[in-house]
Amino acid sequence: MSSLLVQLTQSYGPSGNEEVIRDLIINEIKQFVDELNVDPLGNIIARKKGPGKKLMFAAHMDEIGVIITYIDKKGYLRFSNIGGVSQYSALFQKVRFKNGVIGCIGYEEDIESMKDLKLDKMYIDIGAKDREDAEKIVSIGDAACFEGPFNQQANRISSKALDDRIGCYILIEVIKQLKNSPNDLYFVFTVQEELGLRGARTSAFSVHPDYAVAVDVTATGDTPGAKKMAVKLGKGPAIKVKDNSIIAHPYVRNIMIETAREAGIPYQLEVLEYGGTDSGAIHLTKGGIPSGVLSIATRYLHSPVEMADMDDINNGIKLLRALAVKEMGAEGIS
Amino acid sequence: MNTRELLTILSNSTGVSGHEYAFSSVIKQAFEEFCTSVYQDATGNIIGIRKCKKEKTYKVMLAAHMDEIGLMVKDIDDRGFISFTNIGGVDSRILLAQEVIVHGKEDLFGIIGAKPPHLQTEEESKKAVEIKDMAIDVGMDAKKVKELVSIGDIITFRSPTSCLLNNYLSGKSFDDRAGIICIIECLKELKNTDIDVDVYAVATVQEEVGLRGAIVSTYNIEPDIGIAIDVCHGETPDAPKEDTHSTGKGPVVTIGPNIHPKLVKKMFSIADEYNIPYQKDVEPGNTGTDAWAIQVTRSGIPTLLLSIPLRYMHTTVETLNFNDIVNTGKLLAFFIKNLKGDLEELLCY
Amino acid sequence: MLLKELTEANGVSGNEKEVRDIILREISGYCEKISIDRMGNIIALRKGTSDNGKKVMLSAHMDEVGLIVTGFTDTGFIKFKPVGGIDPRILVSKKVLVGKQRLPGVIGLKAIHLQEPNERKQAVKIKNMYIDIGAKNKEDAEKKVSLGDYIAFDSCYMPFGNNLVKAKALDDRAGCAILIEMIKERYSFDLYACFTVQEEVGLRGAKVAAYTVQPDMALVVEGTTCSDVPGAKEHEYATTLGDGPAISIMDRTSYSNKELSRLLYSLAKENNIKVQYKKTTLGGNDAGVIHLTGKGIPTATISVPCRYIHSPVSVMSMEDFEGCKKLVKLFLEYINKTKQEEENE
Predict the structure, then answer these.
(1) Number of domains comprising chain B
(2) pLDDT, tens digit, for every residue of A290-312?
(3) Residue C242 belongs to a domain
(4) Residue B209 with chain A: CB contacts under 8 Å
(5) Domain boundary among C153, C186, C202
(6) Is residue B14 part of a domain?
(7) Would you call C277 and A198 a contact, using CB atoms and an 8 Å cutoff?
(8) Are residues B176 and B218 both part of a single domain?
(9) Which of A17, A153, A210, B7 is deepest in the core (most CB within 10 A)?
(10) Beta-bridge partner residues of B20
(11) Is residue B206 located within the same domain as residue B148?
């Protein structure tokens, strides 16, 4: 079990509240990079210098969560979602605030049917006696992440926030393992991906790379009754063809495939019919940046029990490391 | 150059969003005949520059998108049937019994099928079949299919252009290859004429999945005026009259927040002056075309939108009247010829 | 009175000229540079006393929701579509002004006697509505009105109740009025007041204005939803009328810069100005595009609560308005002080 991966996934960092996870990552990487900046939105931009093409790797630090919008007289907290939170996966979960306060999510039981369950019919119970008691430890605007402990059984891990601390882990490992690279490498840990790829947009503008690859999780089609999708756990890191935010640039996609083949790393191709990731924002930056995505197959996305395969993650590290030292051509389109 | 023939060739070509490179050389070639230089940017947009003799002058960008809607391989089952997803807006009701080409290692002919009608319940048969319940049959065993076809390969409709009466044509991707022909008609009209502005002819990519080519190409070019040329809905018996325009009655010129008010007035007066037929359309918000992206690039770009009425948009039998294309090209050319001297007054608010 | 003049001017998205002209008249004496960009935004610069090049951007949008002419019936009635988000149910039986010439018209509906019982239960759809300007026929109507003419609500500015006002377009002429006041003062930093266009159709003016200005920080001054009315539960209020300006924490388009939001809140508390946090995360405003400009811009939003927003009869409390104005001023003064201190060090 990788203790870094445990630390990363268990760390607090709902979108817009990435301070804690950011400090953790900075501490991990600062001695291994040539430059390190935090930009106005809070992205970490770390650089390993090289003579060649500017290559940007991005993984988002933020996770989904909830935010307090109102505290009622009895001390119950009303909340809104941060990112894609389903009312069904939120019900009866525990949430954790930055100061460690734990709350339980309940719902107004007088709704007619569970079909009518909506987030605004739900509340967080922190065990407060009344409003005053609650306001001693939380305020309107405080954000919380879901609780979801880290478990490993054989090769499979489950935890909250595998989306996208897996990506952060892969970037950190590559940073640590790489000595020299012919490419000028930018490792960007982005904020607010779950709110609309926001950190990726501004960081890509400052970095303005020649090529970019986002590292993120993706859905799978290998569970009972799943939507049809070819991606499976344990079949290797996935190279994205498309999702709703991007059609991967053919040059980048092909060079990823080529790299995997040369290094003998298993891989699968991914066609995702919904969702998006940081590359969606990056590839439309300025005059256009050829971009691709390296995905790790993950089940039960946006729940506290996201599940992935360690082999996929380790092969993902190998693939990204090989890609980092791959000589990149000057022209995107053949 | 016979532009009617070129439209046929373009519409028959393969260029699903994100995969336009398959036929971009055809467009490059066509632009080269009229442009001082032609290049392809990192995202795949084709940009032809038609310089004028003046040194520092205004840039006018003409944009039409070259991508088409289509399908993509999602998975291949144990019997070799291909399941697929859509790229861009595809009405699933047009898909049953459609002929397609799967662009794998080699092009494979295929048929879109679903559960046969006699096996469906009465309830089921009242409903449209969803894409997730369809499969493409390429008539080969799974092993062979998996050898030739990979997840992520694109699929196009097989629907060669046909000629109807009265200069009407029908084909699979006039949206927006017709717009590209308008640009070429315009460049043709401008050939050997002295104009005061540089014209940037742009065939954009990935319009159908979010105006993506226009976003980056406009940033690169930084034009003073941006004109998008796209298609709009042509009048048909089943469509509400207020949402459609007549075919054969000239280009449709849009008015609304997306459009620069002074420029559009100039466009109207040019059309009146040169007796080019046109129609007006009011769009109160998002035009859903490249014009919407062009307008808010960098510090803001004065933008216009011309559209060709097209029946049965996003089907395999998109139908238009070629006269509308000729008239759109003419209107663009006359408009550009009349951009003389200092345009500050025209472009300011 | 300026607020009256501003709210009674018509400026449906894409057609902000009337509003722009009033603002230009008001600010022309105070600014070193006023430019109107390619989309019609006003970008007004009040130069700073220091030449450290620090830029603070204030933003308020000039446009309002309204309607646009899309056609005519043979009998001379006008067909229209909405510009921006409008609940169709508020349109029935209202007065409007059509076009630059402000031609009066009414949105009618056939009499209750003529309706089927179940027809009365259905909301009227916009495509079935029409405006009556009293034209004889289509030809007559077309002489007065053109396709694409903008239509605004006909609603006068009116004080009422306990220090409240009713007007159309308080969202965001309230913000415009505050910016006009702010630009009169000089600070150490360069102050950019951006009066933006087309917020209601997708935050379009602010996107290009922010690109042009590239400020170091931005504050959006808005009119925002206030739903403290019967039928809503307390946690759904968003804001409460009379509880002071509202500071946004997060909405659909941005997560406000935390330091700036906290600063605004504590400045209000320290100076005994009523203040509230916005209690829902719905909606969005120009901050959504401003904060994503360039390499990212720290941005916050302060709003005047407006009941019945996006209707001809929006309502705000003058106390909230004045509080908002004071707080924006305090904010600028605070930034001024800290920037100067930074420099002295």
Answers:
(1) 2
(2) 999 999 999 999 999 999 999 99
(3) yes
(4) 247
(5) C153
(6) yes
(7) no
(8) yes
(9) A17
(10) none
(11) no
Q: What is the 3-state secondary structure (H, E, C) of chain C?
A: CHHHHHHHCCCECCCCHHHHHHHHHHHCCCCCEEEECCCCCEEEEECCCCCCCCEEEEEEECCECEEEEEEECCCCCEEEEEECCCCHHHCCCEEEEECCCCEEEEECCCCHHHCCCCHHHCCCCHHHCCEECCCCCHHHHHHHCCCCCEEEECCCCEEECCCEEEECCHHHHHHHHHHHHHCCCCCCCEEEEEEECCCCCCCHHHHHHHHHHCCCEEEEEEEEEECCCCCCCHHHCCCCCCCCCEECCECCCCECCHHHHHHHHHHHHHCCCCCEECCCCCCCCCHHHHCCCCCCCCEEEEEEEEECCCCCCEEEEHHHHHHHHHHHHHHHHHHHHHHHHHHHC
Q: Which of B193-207, C232-246, C257-271 has the lowest mean pLDDT?
A: C232-246
Please give the pLDDT value at position A334. Answer: 43
Tell me which of C16, C18, C199, C319 is the catalytic residue: C199
Query: ipTM score here?
Result: 0.89
Q: Is the same domain home to C287 and C316?
A: yes
Residue C276 pLDDT > 70: yes
Instruction: Report the gap between the CA of B143 and the closest CA in chain C (Å).
Output: 48
Give the domain extent around C225: 2-64+168-344
**pLDDT value of position A1:** 62
Domain region containing B101: 71-157
pLDDT at position B177 over 60? yes
Q: Where are the domains of chain A?
A: 3-63+160-324, 65-146
Establish whether domains A3-63+160-324 and A65-146 are of one fold: no
Share of chain C above pLDDT 70, in %: 100
Cα nearest neighbour of B344 on chain C: C38
- In the CATH scheme, what is the homologous superfamily, with its name and number, of domain A65-146? Peptidase M42, domain 2 (2.40.30.40)
**CB A80 to CB C295 under 8 A?**
no
Report, as ranges of residue numbers, the positions in chain A whose pLDDT lies below 70: 1, 331-334
Interface test with C, best of A20, A22, A69 (most C CBs within 10 A): A69
Over 90: is that where the pLDDT of B127 sits? no
Q: B138 CA to chain A: closest CA distance, Å?
A: 19
Residues C108 and C7 placed together within one structural domain of the fold: no
**Within a domain: residue B167?**
no
Residue B262 shares a structural domain with residue B126: no
Q: How many other C-beta atoms are found inside a 10 Å radius of the C-beta of residue B284? A: 25
Are C180 and C147 in the same domain? no
Instruction: State whether residue A280 sits within 8 Å of chain C by CB.
Output: no
Band (pLDDT 50/70/90 cuts) for residue C340 is: confident
Inter-chain CB proximity C296 and A41 less than 8 Å: yes
Tell me whether residue B345 is one of the annotated catalytic residues: no
Q: Is B345 on the interface with C (CB under 8 A)?
A: no
Strand order in the sheet with B318-321: B162-163, B168-171, B318-321
Please state, in angstroms and rounded to a whole number, the distance separating the CA atoms of residues B300 and C39.
Answer: 6
Q: List the single best residue of B59, B296, B297, B343 to mutate versus C (max C Cβ within 10 A).
A: B296
Tell me: the pLDDT tens digits for C62-77?
999 999 999 999 999 9
Residue range B272-292: mean pLDDT, rounded: 97
- For an interface test with B, the pick among C12, C21, C73, C204 (most B C-beta atoms closer than 10 Å) comes out as C204
Q: Which of B41, B44, B74 sits opposite A271 (nearest CB)?
A: B74
Average pLDDT over residues C181-205: 96
Q: CATH for A3-63+160-324, among 3.40.50.11270, 3.40.50.2300, 3.40.630.10, 3.40.190.10?
A: 3.40.630.10
Say which of A242, A250, A269 has its CB closest to residue B150.
Answer: A269
Last residue of a domain, one of B100, B128, B157: B157
Find chains touching chain A: ≥3 CB pairs under 8 Å.
B, C
pLDDT score recorded for residue C345 = 67
Residue C162 maps to a domain:
no
Asked whether the beta carbons of residue A69 and residue C258 sit closer than 8 angstroms, the reply is no
